[in-house]
Amino acid sequence: MAEEGPRGHVYVARLLTDDAMAALAALGRPLVVGEERPPTAEELRRDAVGAAAIVCTLTERIDAAVLDAAGPRLRLVANVAVGYDNVDVAAARERGVVVTNTPGVLDDATADLAFGLLLATTRRIAEGDRLVRSGQPWVWGPTMMTGLDISAGVTLGIVGYGRIGRAMARRARGFGMRLLATPTRSELSDEDAAGVTFLALPDLLADADVVTLHVPLTPETHHLIDDGALGRMRPTAVLVNTARGGIVDTDALVRALQEGRLGGAGLDVYEGEPDVDPRLRALDRVVLTPHLGSAGDRTRSAMCLLAVRNVAEVLAGRPPVTPV
User: Fold this and answer.
1) Is 257 helix (H, G, I), strand (E, B) or coil?
2) Which one of the listed residues 163, 244, 285, 309 is annotated catalytic?
3) 107-288: same fold as 9-105+298-315?
4) Residues 6 or more apart in contact with residue 301 via CB below 8 angstroms
5) Which fold has domain 9-105+298-315?
6) Is-catalytic flag, 273?
7) Mean pLDDT by 10 residues, the chain (324 residues)
8) 3.40.50.720, 3.40.50.1970, 1.10.530.10, 3.30.1380.10: which CATH number matches 107-288?
9) What gap in Å lies between CA 63 and CA 49, rounded to an integer?
């Protein structure tokens, strides 16, 4: 149950890494700490009552009801993620509550995972693993389980050329891939711009052998990859999504895969997560991971510590480190 001290407590909705929890304890504020499992909506509202700060993850929906339950002491919602579609930012702004996220510290880890999904899908690594584990007899042959030779000039289309998209490009250059990206308003270094052709999304989809998604989930990007977008892609193309599940229309993706209009998909995120559409699980040319994009030990620690830094700064009356 929430404790209401004169300055308000810090409500930590999910247990963080050990070093982050120690840093929170060092702030000298009462702590109300959730469990490793996500709290229910009722638990969120209950434990937020009287809080000065809420530290949450992408699995907690911080909406107007939670903000109102917290009351006038609430000054900050620190989200342990880059994306913040789980937080009603407009409602927080109306109540004078700062929202922060954790950009920058997980770029490489997420790009590593995205490139791993690219390799696992194009070279059928997960499919091969399942075959060997099944105990089915197999014999090597010239046409057995062939896939894309990504080092042979295969074209990578990067949708969202922000920090993670640029990290993806750095990895792809090492494999000699041809690079396409959707236009960006970010200032690019010569290194980040090198060898990249910027195209509108429809043209990128039509020209890419592999499409990787690195945009935030917003009303504008919800179902960005729908029937029309998938119809523009090559029937041999592969889709990789490590951003947010809602960017892809699951029904449209399943249809494209089942009908042979798409070569495969590597997915780390899902609509309705943590539930995964059983039709996806039944498809051989799909590689599925449970939202592991940032799941490096050092990366997760850095994310949690950055959230704690934001708490410390805002509760001390200073500007946040990484405001949304």
Assistant:
1) helix
2) 244
3) yes
4) 17, 19, 20
5) Rossmann fold (3.40.50)
6) yes
7) 66 97 96 93 97 97 98 98 96 98 96 98 96 95 94 95 97 97 94 96 98 96 98 98 98 98 98 96 96 96 98 97 97
8) 3.40.50.720
9) 14
Radius of gyration of the chain (CA): 22
Residues in the chain: 324
- 291 classed as catalytic: yes
Catalytic residue among 61, 223, 273, 279: 273
Helix (H/G/I), strand (E/B), else coil: 308: helix
Of the residues 75, 124, 291, 300, only one is catalytic, namely 291
The answer to whether the predicted template modeling score (pTM) of the entire model surpasses 0.90 is: yes
Per residue in 137-146, pLDDT (tens digit) is 999 999 999 9
Residues 46-71 pLDDT 10s: 999 999 999 999 999 999 999 999 99
67-76 b/e (C-beta count within 10 Å ≥ 16 → b): bebbeebbbb
- Mean residue pLDDT of the chain comes to 96
The ranges assigned to domains in the chain are: 9-105+298-315, 107-288
